[in-house]
Amino acid sequence: MCQSKKYYNILVRQGASEFARFFVFNKIFSKYIKTQQVFDGKSNLIYHRCGDIMAYKIAYLHSNQKGICPVDEFTTLAKSKGVDFIVQKFDIRSISNEILSQLRTFDAVIISGSPEIHESLIESLAANLNLYAKCCFKSTNSGNLTAQNLVIVTDTFSSENGGFASTKEFGREAYDTLKFSELEIERTARIAYELAEKMSNRITLSDTHVNLKTANLWRKIVSDINEDYPSCMLDFENIFDTTRKLAEDPSQYSVILADHNNFHALSGVADLKNPLGDGTSTIAYLGETTVGIYGTERANVYAPLFDCIAISKMLEHSFDLPVLYKAWTDSIQNLLQM
Length: 338
Known about the structure:
By secondary structure, this protein is of the alpha/beta class. The chain folds into two domains: 34-131 and 287-338, Rossmann fold, CATH 3.40.50; 134-275, Isopropylmalate Dehydrogenase. Helices cover 40% and strands 26% of the residues. It has eleven helices and 14 strands. It has helices at residues 3-12, 18-32, 70-80, 97-103, 119-128, 182-198, 213-225, 239-248, 260-270, 304-318, 322-336; strands at 38-39, 45-50, 53-62, 83-91, 108-111, 133-138, 150-155, 159-167, 171-179, 202-207, 233-238, 255-257, 281-286, 292-297. The strands form two sheets. Strands 1, 2, 3, 4, 5, 6, 7, 10, 11, 12, 13 and 14 form a twelve-stranded mixed β-sheet that branches. Strands 8-9 form a two-stranded antiparallel ribbon. β3 (53-62), α3 (70-80) and β4 (83-91) form a beta-alpha-beta unit. The relative contact order is 0.15.
C-alpha cells in the first residue's frame, strides 16, 4: 500500500484515535514542508530549494574528538548527488538552553559515537525534542554491518515509581508501580509499525506476562493499531521465549516492540551476536515527524564507523532519499572490504 493511501485510510477509519490523526498529519506535513522555503522568527533559512539542489539542516553533536569526521565526507557525497546538507557542529558537553531551542529547527541530529556520551544525556535531548520512541538497531550479519536487520523499539516516557517501607507487623516492604497510558503505548507502537513496513512487515510484541494489567493494555492497543497496517503480521510473545530465540538465532526477528522494563534484557541478548561489539548499538529516537536523533549507544571507543552507520539510519528514516542512501551504504561496505 502506498504511503498516501495508507495515511488517508487512517484518517477516515471510524474509531481512529485523535493521536492517530495527529500522527498522520505530522508525517505528511513534515515531508511536504521540506520542499518549501521556510524561515524562522529571525529570518534564518531553515529549508530551501536552489535549482536542482535540496538543502537540509542537520546538527552534529560531538565530544571534541579529532581526526576523521564522517559527516564531512557525507556532505561531499550528498552534494555530488544533488542534495545539500547544511551541518552545524556543537560540543555536546556544553549544550545550553539556547542550543536546545536551536536543535528544534533542524531536520535531524547526529550524535557522535563516543564513550564520553552517555545514554542519559541522549535521552534528555530526546525528551526536549519530544522524541518518544527509542529504536535500537542490531546487525545479525557480520558480513554487512550496514544491514541492521533487527530493531528493538521501546518507549522513553513511561512513569515508574517504587519505594521501601518498614512496619512493626510485617517488617521491611518494597513496592514497584508501573503506569502506561494509551497515548504512550500508541505513539511508540506506531513507530514500530512504520519501521516494520520498511523492513519485513513482521512485528513482535514481547512482554513479561499476559496476566499483568499493563501487558494486557499493550496487547489490546497494539492489536487495534494493526488495523492501520494490514500488511504487517503481528505476533505476541513472552519475553522469556523471545530472549531464548534471540540467543539462538536473532534473524528470526525483524521488529521487536517492548516496554522499557523489558528493553534492556532483549537488547543485551541481541548483542551476543552483534558484530559491532558487546553493548554497542546504533540507536535512533523518533517521533511523529521526520526529525530524529541518531547515534551510537555504549561505544567503548570512538570509531568513525559508528557515525557512518548513524548517518545511514538518518537517511533511511528522516529523509526520502533512496539514491543517496544506497550510495552512502555502498561506500561504507566498500571501505570495510578494503
